[in-house]
Structure formats: C-alpha cells, structure tokens
Amino acid sequence: MDGNSTTSQVTNDPFASVRFPEYKNLILGRFTFITALRMMSTLVGWWVYELTKDPFAIGLVGLSEVVPALSLALYSGHVIDISEKRRLLLKGVFGYICAGSALLFLATPFIHNRVNSNTIAYCIYGVIFCTGIIRSFSGPIFSTLIAMTVPRQYLQNATTWSQASWLSASVTGHAMGGFLIALFGHMGTMIVICSLMIAAFFILSRMKPKAPMQKSGRTWESVKEGLRFVFRTKELLAAFSLDMFAILFGGVQAMIPVYAKDILKVDPIGFGWLNAAIDIGSITVVVLLTIAPLKKAQGKKLLLAVAGFGMCIILFALSKWFILSFFALMIAGMLDGVSVVIRGTVMQLKTPDHMRGRVSSVSSMFINSSNELGQFESGLAARIFGVVPSVIFGGIMTLTVVATTWIKAPTLRKFQY
User: Fold this and answer.
1) Is residue 56 part of a domain?
2) In a domain, 2, yes or no
3) pLDDT tens-digit profile of 5-43?
4) Collapsed DSSP state (helix, strand, coil) of residue 223
5) DSSP reduced 3-state for 108
6) What's the CATH number where 268 sits?
7) Under a CB-based contact definition with an 8 Å cutoff, are residues 400 and 245 in contact?
8) DSSP class of 114
9) How far apart are CA 387 and CA 229, in angstroms?
10) Which residues constitute the domain of residue 103?
11) Which are the contacts of 114, defined by CB distance < 8 A and separation ≥ 6?
C-alpha cells in the first residue's frame, strides 16, 4: 500500500489527529454519548434480571435491539451516504434522549407502585427495540465522520484515537453504571444518563455540516454496491466475519449480572467493575498502540489475539473468585483491543470516501449487531445448558472460529499495513 509515509507520520506524532478541532469535537461528543449508552446497557441488564430473575430475559434485551438494527442496517448505510451527516447524527442522539426519558419514566415510583415486574420488563424491551432502530442510523455515522474530519494521512492515528475514546467511554459507563445503581438506584442513574446524552448533543452540534459524498440514486442498487465491495475485499470480509463469530459465541457481557449476583456474590459496585473489566483491558492496549502502532503481521496478530480472548473467556467461566474473574476479563479485553484497532484501521484504509456509510453499516451488521445476537445466544444457551457450561461453550466456539479462519482465510492471516 501507500501507507509507508502515513505510518511514519503517525508514529512521529501520536497526537496528530486530535489537533484538528472538528475531530476533537467528534471524539469528545462520542465519548460523552457512549458513556451514557454504556451506563444505560449496564442498568438495563441489572434491572431486567432483578425484575425477572431469569438469565434468558437478559438475552431478550439483546434480541429486542438487534432485530431492528439488523433489518435496517443496509438501508441506513445508503441513507447515510446521501445525507448531511451532522444533521442525521444529531437526530439519532435526540432519539436516544427520548428513549432514555422513557426508561426514566419506567424507573419512577409512580410506575413501580402501579405496574407489575413483567409488564415493566416488556416496556423496557419496547424501548430497547426503538433504540435498535435509532442505532442502525446513528452508529455507523461516527465511523464515516472520522475520515471527514482529518486528512487521509492521519487516518490510522485517528482510528486508534477513536477506538481509545470509545473504549474509555465504555469503561467509564460500565463502571460508573454499577456505582450509580448502588448509590442512587434506577431512577437516579437514568437522570445522569439523560443528562450526559443532552451534553453530547450540544458538543456534537458544534461540528460543521458534512455534505453527502454521493448523490441520491436507486436505493437497492446503492445497497448492493456496498455489499459487493465488502465481499470482494477479502481482508475486510475475513476480519468482519472473524469478529462477528467471536463476539457471537465468546461475548460474555450478558451473563455478568448472573455471575455477579449468583456465582461471585458481589454487590452492584462489584458488578460495575466486572462489567468494565474487558473495556479496562482494551483501553490499556489501545493507548499503547496509539503511542507504538503495530508495525507488521497485523493479520496474524489479529487471529492470535482472538484465540487468546477465547481462552480467557473459558477461564472466566470456571472461576469462582472475583479477582481471578476480573483479571480474566481484563486480559480478554486487552486482546480484544488489539483486534479492534486492527479491524478498524483495515476498514478506514480500504474504504473509499463515497462508500463509508454503506461499509460502516455492513460492519455494524457483522460486528455491532453480533453483540446483541451474542447476548441473546448467551441467554438461550444459559437456559439450555446452564450459565457456566454456556460460557465455556462460547469460549470453545471462539477457538474453533479462529482455527477455521486461520485455515480458510490466508488473505487475512498474511495481511499487513
């Protein structure tokens, strides 16, 4: 590739991309917004398990979000490419503010004193279904905006900073979500969440309008063009597929409330730390990779990192001690951080500007939605096999996926940038 000069520039100045005011507003707004979303997902998982006492009910939260997100993903990519992106992003954030306000209303004593637990849980599923619709549009926009706020030679650096901010927000949101539940309960936590979403709206509104990169055309032809590009770009397809199946089977986040309450016997604060452990590991590695980027054999390192992730998940499944469980998840997060940076950089470098919305949407189908599908799979497997065997099964399946990819996708194994 033509990336030799790019890499040297990024290496010489690890803060290159954050010196651009537009990019700085994007990252700060995204950090605030993702912190709120992670707090909300932490609260919803804990809340639904308290209401139902059923691990499968947590899985239904993921299913509620993934159905609309997957259904609209390809169409949303077309809309993003033909739309003014700042306005579309602000509409998405406003939609989340409305959804957060609905959850806040469900958390009030007025509702809890008048409505039974199962009905509240069903209402929560309804709100999460609506956030799935919103996310199908708002999620991919952040990725498309990165390339529109920094010059191309800083894309690798900008991608790494973007992942660092996302993971930092995840750590903050997951950990603080647990603390806030313990201190202020459901209603107080939702007030903080809504306040952060409003703050994110005003930060992101400071960005300049971003003109469409493509003229409006036939929707289906535009969608097919995006799909064809991903399926013809073997490195992208293999990286997306690897991450999708690893998260689908190895994602353990959905079962953390069950482990915290019933196996490790910790309070909401301990739950918050467990929930944040993977992201703490990820942000540690992403910061290191910002300062010292991976130089070669990134494809092979990606496969080895995902394999290590699967082994850590098996260790977590077998652990009965909080400290061991925490460190197993944190090391899993460190390995996941390597995967996140490599995959994100591949996508930014391989995707032409006029297709970033559609490729980001396909990425969300493969990767982001696999989080919620994985959450549903975890809940279903926990009901069929039991909680601990289901998590062990997920770790073993992750190792199987890596072995299959190593053999079947030599393009990814040999890839480097």
Assistant:
1) yes
2) no
3) 334 344 467 777 888 888 999 999 999 999 999 999 889
4) helix
5) coil
6) 1.20.1250.20
7) no
8) T
9) 39
10) 12-413
11) none
How far is 276 from 210, CA to CA, in rounded Å? 34
Domain count, the chain: 1
How far apart, in whole angstroms, are the C-alpha atoms of residue 380 and residue 273? 25
- Whole-angstrom Cα distance, residue 375 to residue 381? 10
DSSP 19: G
Residue 328 CA neighbour count, 13 Å, CB half: 20
* Per-residue buried b or exposed e for 169-183, using 16+ beta carbons within 10 Å of the residue's own CB: bbbbbbbbbbbbbee
The residue to which tokens 């939605």 are assigned: 369
List pLDDT tens digits, range 194-240.
999 999 999 999 998 877 765 555 556 656 666 777 777 777 777 77
DSSP 121-183: HHHHHHHHHHHHHHHHHHHHHHHHHHHHHS-GGGHHHHHHHHHHHHHHHHHHHHHHHHHHHHH
Contact predicate 38/169, CB 8 Å: yes
Give the pLDDT confidence of 50-84 residue by residue, as tens digits: 899 888 888 788 788 878 877 777 777 777 777 88
Whether 4 is in a domain gets the answer no
Residues 6+ apart with CB under 8 A from 399: 307, 310, 311
Number of H helices and E strands in the chain, helices first, is 17, 0
- Separation CA 355–CA 318 (nearest Å): 44
Q: Is 215 strand, coil or helix?
A: coil
Helix-strand-coil percent breakdown of the chain, rounded to 5? 85, 0, 15
Mean pLDDT of 314-331: 93
Q: Which of 81, 352, 84 is nearest to 210 (CA)?
A: 84
**Over the stretch 132-184, which tens digit does the pLDDT of each residue have?**
899 888 877 887 888 788 887 787 788 778 877 887 887 788 778 888 988 89
397: Cβ contacts below 8 Å, ≥ 6 apart = 245, 249, 250, 310
Burial string for 204-236 (b: 16+ CB within 10 Å, else e) reads beebeebeebbeeeeeeebbebbbebbeebebb
CA distances from 60 to 122, 125, 128, 139, 275 (A): 10, 8, 10, 21, 19
> 5 in a domain, yes or no?
no
